[in-house]
Specification:
- Strands 2, 4, 5, 6, 10, 11 and 12 form a seven-stranded mixed beta sheet that branches. Strands 1, 3, 7, 8 and 9 form a five-stranded antiparallel beta sheet that branches.
- It is elongated and about 45 Å long.
- The chain is built from no helices and twelve strands.
- The chain is mainly β and 120 residues long.
Length: 120
């Protein structure tokens, strides 16, 4: 029962930057529903959904090799919001980006997805 609202997608030329955001709300007021991990996946229609980045409440991060050094994943725990700062974008970064939030009870929820298109 967690809702994730994403924003920030759009069209950008190669080498440009975009900042995605994802805010969580809903059944997170009970301790068992506290969000632990938030992150991002991306997917080209018809293909698998690939991991991009993740951050825990404590600030530990992990990035896919394809984006390491170009993307960062800041998080505002107080606002239950995660961001994806995307720099030096490449055409191969074009995809639908989905955020997710994993609660301490192990349940993960997904956002609706936001389109990122990088032109050459």
């Amino acid at each position: 029962q967690v809702q994730l609202v994403e924003s920030g997608g759009g069209l950008v030329q190669a080498g440009g930057s975009l900042r995605l955001s994802c805010a969580a709300s809903g059944s997170i007021y009970r301790s068992i529903y506290r969000i632990n991990t938030m992150g991002w996946y991306r997917q080209i229609p018809g293909e698998q959904r690939d991991f991009v980045a993740v951050i825990t409440t404590g600030g530990s991060t992990n990035y896919a090799d394809a984006v390491k050094g170009r993307f960062t994943i800041p998080r505002d725990n107080a606002k239950n919001t995660v961001y994806l700062q995307m720099n030096s974008l490449k055409p191969e970064d074009t995809a639908v980006y989905y955020c997710y939030a994993a609660k301490v009870n192990g349940v993960a929820d997904w956002g609706q997805g936001t389109q990122v298109t990088v032109s050459s």
